[in-house]
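We were asked to recover a plausible sequence for a given structure. The inputs and outputs are reproduced exactly as logged, with field labels preserved.

PROBLEM: sequence recovery
POSITIONS: 321
GIVEN STRUCTURE:
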């Protein structure tokens, strides 16, 4: 097949799938609001189920819901018929997915929901199908065929199902005021965890902070720097406010036999760069890399007082770049 023909086919697929999404966009109604109301009020979990390709998409929808603040998991309809129905409680909400609405494997779950009065959300293109009629709530998929040239392989329909699941997840996030902090708590590992890591998550605080009074002499400062092993010491006034900072670089610049007798206020860099503890650690890295000759430490300050110290090595170990 000529290369330009491949591109032509690819564009046709995109166009067909976009058409399906545009159709779904035009058919959105207050059914979505009712579904969101139901899930928000629910005291249980959202149990997602579906067979075949709908099941694969259902797993992703359940994972997205769980990671964005809505407890959720996927139950395979076949396993449900062999004991996993016991995972469902009348506090839960079931989201059953079937493009045509006639997946016979869903029958046991549908009957169980009716028997125990578990709210059932039907996600299907056919409101008159078995699933459509069984559902207490309907999330309608577009009835616009498939991007597959045979019109058979789930393509446009699975894309629409995925997007409709995202619509529900994002709608719930908006209603709950789901924040970056909430998101990070559910994604502590990997790149996402590093991106969302805050200065307060990595900084050295309390007794780990190298701090000394502005009236002290350099001998005292050297002892503190050696004990804390962070390559610097912060200088505070009588109010506990950060007024200066001494780094390893400052020691080299001031090196002399009488250095240990000097007052720290003489050697320190006044008004050093600082950062807030509630900002992302990536901002701390940016500040350290883009401050004149570059620095390796930043004091985290609140109301002028140091509450922590973050080192570039702490950021690198956490994967923050």
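RECOVERED SEQUENCE:
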């Amino acid at each position: 097949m000529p290369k330009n023909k491949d591109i032509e086919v690819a564009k046709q697929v995109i166009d067909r799938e976009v058409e399906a999404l545009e159709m779904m966009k035009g058919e959105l109604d207050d059914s979505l609001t009712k579904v969101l109301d139901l899930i928000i009020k629910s005291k249980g979990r959202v149990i997602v189920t579906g067979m075949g390709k709908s099941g694969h998409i259902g797993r992703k929808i359940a994972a997205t819901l769980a990671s964005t603040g809505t407890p959720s998991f996927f139950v395979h309809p076949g396993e449900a018929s062999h004991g996993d129905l016991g995972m469902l409680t009348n506090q839960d909400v079931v989201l059953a997915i079937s493009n045509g609405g006639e997946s016979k494997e869903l029958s046991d779950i549908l009957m169980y929901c009716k028997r125990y009065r578990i709210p059932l959300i039907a996600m299907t293109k056919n409101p008159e199908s078995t699933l459509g009629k069984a559902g207490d709530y309907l999330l309608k998929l577009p009835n616009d065929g498939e991007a597959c040239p045979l019109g058979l392989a789930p393509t446009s329909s699975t894309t629409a199902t995925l997007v409709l699941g995202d619509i529900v997840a994002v709608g719930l996030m908006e209603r709950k005021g789901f924040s970056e902090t909430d998101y990070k708590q559910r994604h502590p590992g990997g790149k996402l965890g590093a991106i969302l890591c805050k200065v307060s998550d990595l900084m050295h605080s309390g007794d780990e902070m190298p701090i000394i009074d502005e009236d002290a002499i350099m001998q005292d400062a050297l002892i503190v720097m050696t004990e804390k092993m962070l390559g610097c010491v912060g200088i505070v006034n009588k109010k506990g406010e950060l007024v200066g900072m001494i780094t390893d670089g400052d020691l080299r610049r001031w090196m002399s036999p009488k250095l240990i007798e000097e007052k720290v206020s003489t050697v320190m860099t006044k008004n050093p760069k600082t950062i807030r503890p509630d900002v992302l650690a990536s901002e701390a890295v940016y500040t350290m890399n883009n401050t004149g000759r570059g620095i390796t430490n930043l004091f985290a300050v609140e109301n002028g007082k140091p509450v922590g110290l973050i080192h570039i090595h702490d950021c690198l170990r956490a994967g923050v770049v």
